[in-house]
Description:
Layout: H1 2-16, H2 21-32, H3 37-43, H4 53-89, H5 108-122, E1 126-127, E2 133-135, H6 136-139, E3 159-161, E4 164-166, H7 172-181, E5 187-196, E6 208-218, H8 223-238, E7 244-251, E8 254-263, E9 280-289, H9 291-296, E10 305-312, H10 313-321, H11 334-338
Parallel strand pairs: 1-5
Antiparallel strand pairs: 2-4, 3-4, 5-6, 6-10, 7-8, 8-9, 9-10
Bound molecules: phenylalanine (PHE).
Amino acid sequence: MEAFDSLKQSFLKALETVFKEAELAELKAEYLGKKGKVTQLMQAMKDLSPEERPAYGQKVNQLKNELSDALNAHKEALENARIEAQLATEKIDVTLPGHDMSVGSSHILTQIVESIEDLFIGLGYQIKEGPEIESDEYNFEKLNLPKNHPARDMQDSFYIDPNTLLRTHTSPVQVRTMLEYGGSKPVKIICPGKVYRRDDDDATHSHQFMQIEGLVVDQKTTMADLKGTLLKLAQTMFGPDRTIRLRPSYFPFTEPSVEVDVSCYNCEGTGCSICKHTGYIEILGAGMVHDNVLKMSGYDPNVYQGFAFGIGVERIAMLKYGIEDIRHFYTNDMRFLRMFNQ
Ligand code: PHE
């Protein structure tokens, strides 16, 4: 009995000094393992007389149970302590302010396009897109610019093969849409997109830039509708007090054709360096759709009339924000782009 007791005491003492789960496994092996001390006591049973064996066996079993209960309790305590420690060190304060996320913003040209789209969607227009690689037929011929027409020189082009080029303007989307509508439906669209011209890049020229085309075709469309629409556009872009002025011009695909000026937003028309002391700034080209263009795209000019306009997006942005060099839009200097973060 004494041997049992001292074994139990030495076990409990050893247990108190165990703080790691790995050491606990060692202690378990030392006492309860195959060659452990308690197991040896079990084996000693065979040396006893049959009468002594039941009582002895009971004792050993009891000891074994006590030790393994103590072992399990200690194991649980160690585990709890480990979790507590982990919780204490990994604690996070959810009330602390978070890190600022760096959020991108849309490009200034996208912002201008979207604001013009918003205006025209509000006026009942649809947005159309066309390919940047375009056929000579749609970019020129069906816009009343046959091969060898001198006005082709107005738009120096990048040809891919004799019949294919990078579109020089968004006007081919006029042709595509009229052909799609089949000559019998009214058309009311704007078409934003990239265009390309064989220009040497400098402060005011870029071989790639953006335009927004507008086209309305219906049975009672007049120049007054064009004028009212462009006035609304000028006021949306440059402020509610703006007026516009139309000057005669020439485009092969419109007749009559006009150049449209907006009253200077800087000097209110009295004359300053922005408007070169004229009180007006040129913002776009427009006109009534030429009979030949209507005909070539399947609309009868005796029944339908239309107006069209083309806006240069960079030019609008440069005027609106006083940007002096068109190359800023395409050279991705973050200091420039960030000025227009919304
Ligand atoms: N396509 C012309 C250009 O790029 C602009 C324009 C469009 C003029 C529609 C009149 C009508 O210069």
